[in-house]
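=== Per-residue structure ===
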Amino acid sequence: MADVSIGRIFRRGFAGLFAARGRDNRMQFWLFSALVFGPLVTLQFIVQMILSFPSVDLSGGQGAIRTASLDAHFFESVAIIGTVNLVLHLIGALLLVTAVARRLHDRDRSGWWSLILPFAVVAVGLDQARRTEAMAKAMARWMAEARQTPPEGIGDVFAFPARLQAAMPGPDWPAIVAGLAMLWLAIELVRAGTAGDNRYGPRP
């Protein structure tokens, strides 16, 4: 019976960070992916929680000044969180490049296709940062308008998300291409490997 322990998955995955030769089956690949992205997602959540809440100002202060400070903190946090997310996802993608290559070998595909993963993370991350920046600018403008002219009814309140969505630019072409490439890659990664030996080695 094959050894499918977490220890073996861990050793096989991290020992092969710089070795793309050979083949990995689906269980090895997906469990190792969970071991890589689990801590990164946890760290991402912690960073978002820390940055999303402003520090408590016990000295009080004038309302307008305090409101402006909170707004500045919020929009600054949005930009920082976007950068942190991009960096963490890129780290995860780089850690998985060789594992993706071995999984593709199991599908009898060239391991060079694994480079889709970091390319897609960067392309989609930069596009998301661009769209988030546009959203933050629109929010800042509309929040300032709302303080001067408060919403008159529930319709105005529900209209805000629609206006915000309409102000966001659409995805750019690199992000669209990256998304389509990632869709193909994901389909390959979830499919079973070839039966028996192939040109990349024996069946794992």
User: Anything to note?
Assistant: Residues 55-66 have pLDDT under 50 and may be disordered. The radius of gyration is 23 Å. The chain is about 70% helix and 0% strand.
